[in-house]
């Protein structure tokens, strides 16, 4: 029985006594509390389409409140976060939608979520213009995304993954940044200025390893 005045933590503690995913959720809660108590370096791995699916502000909350110390993410999650921070939106759709009709209407689909393709093109142009403003040298994905978050915050002052990470100085690594629309924007910038948009993914390895070396314990979510 769940009383109406129980906190979320108390509900999770009780779920340890049931089965299936309820108990798994309680276990995850218990492990995460132990991570925080043990002063671990906590990595959060983010894959799939969480931002497009509407969960990006949950990740921003984790960053702002330092429930995590470092993020390793796909480029898509960061791109869709940028899309929302720039005042654009994702819309509910259907996985059975007619993709030819969507294409004709300049609408993109991620399973049951829809986006405006013309707004995506504008995002790519925005990223390209930003990349052209940087000094022409290699950047780790962590440094590039920090600067991108800074620029995004200064322009929009909207909460999101990139802006929260910039403000809390939480590093984000994106090992496959080229495999996303952020990469498309960077490549577009390079068409204008040869040599820009250099992302040093080997440098990412060195930087993340140095983070681990400095801590007695590490953990991952």
- The percentage helix is 40-55%
Structural class comes to: alpha/beta
Rounded mean pLDDT is 96
At the fourth CATH level, what is the homologous superfamily of the largest domain?
Answer: Deoxyhypusine synthase
Number of helices: 10
Compute the number of strand runs: 7
Q: Tell me the distance between the termini.
A: 30 Å
Low-confidence stretches: none
Structural Rg: 19 Å
Give the percentage of residues in beta strands.
5-15%
Order of helices and strands: HHEHEHEHEEHHHEHHE
Largest sheet: 4 strands, parallel
Q: Determine and state the CATH class of the largest domain.
A: Alpha Beta
Number of domains: 2
Principal-axes geometry comes out as: globular
Per CATH, which architecture of the largest domain?
3-Layer(aba) Sandwich
CATH topology of the largest domain: Deoxyhypusine Synthase
How do the strands line up in the largest sheet?
6-2-1-7
Chart the SSEs and their pairings.
Blueprint: H1 8-15, H2 20-37, E1 41-46, H3 56-64, E2 70-73, H4 75-85, E3 91-92, H5 99-104, E4 107-110, E5 113-116, H6 117-132, H7 141-156, H8 161-168, E6 172-173, H9 181-192, H10 201-213, E7 218-220
Parallel strand pairs: 1-2, 1-7, 2-6
Antiparallel strand pairs: 3-5, 4-5
Helix pairs in contact: 1-2, 3-8, 6-9, 7-8
Question: What would your notes on this structure say?
Answer:
With 221 residues, the protein is α/β, with parallel strands linked by helices. It is built from 10 helices and 7 strands. The two termini are 30 Å apart. The strands form 2 sheets. A 4-stranded parallel beta sheet has the order 6-2-1-7. Strands 3-5-4 form a 3-stranded antiparallel beta sheet. It has helices at 8-15, 20-37, 56-64, 75-85, 99-104, 117-132, 141-156, 161-168, 181-192, 201-213; strands at 41-46, 70-73, 91-92, 107-110, 113-116, 172-173, 218-220. Strand 4 and strand 5 form a beta hairpin.
């Amino acid at each position: 029985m769940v009383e109406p005045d129980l906190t979320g933590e108390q509900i999770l503690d009780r779920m340890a006594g049931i089965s299936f995913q309820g108990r798994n959720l309680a276990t995850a809660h218990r492990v995460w509390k132990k991570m925080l108590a043990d002063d671990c370096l906590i990595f959060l791995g983010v894959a799939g389409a969480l931002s497009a699916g509407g969960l990006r502000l949950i990740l921003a909350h984790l960053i702002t409140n330092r429930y995590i110390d470092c993020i390793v993410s796909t480029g898509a999650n960061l791109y869709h976060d940028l899309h929302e921070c720039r005042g654009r939106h994702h819309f509910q759709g259907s996985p059975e939608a007619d993709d030819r009709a969507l294409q004709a209407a300049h609408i993109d689909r991620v399973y049951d979520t829809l986006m405006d393709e013309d707004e995506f093109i504008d995002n790519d142009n925005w990223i390209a213009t930003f990349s052209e403003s940087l000094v022409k040298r290699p950047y780790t994905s962590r440094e590039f995304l920090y600067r991108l978050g800074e620029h995004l915050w200064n322009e929009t002052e909207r909460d999101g993954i990139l802006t929260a990470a910039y403000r809390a100085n939480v590093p984000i690594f994106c090992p496959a940044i080229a495999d996303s629309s952020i990469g498309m924007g960077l490549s577009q910038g390079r068409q204008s200025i040869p040599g820009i948009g250099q992302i040093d993914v080997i440098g990412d390895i060195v930087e993340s390893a140095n983070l681990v070396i400095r801590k007695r314990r590490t953990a991952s979510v």
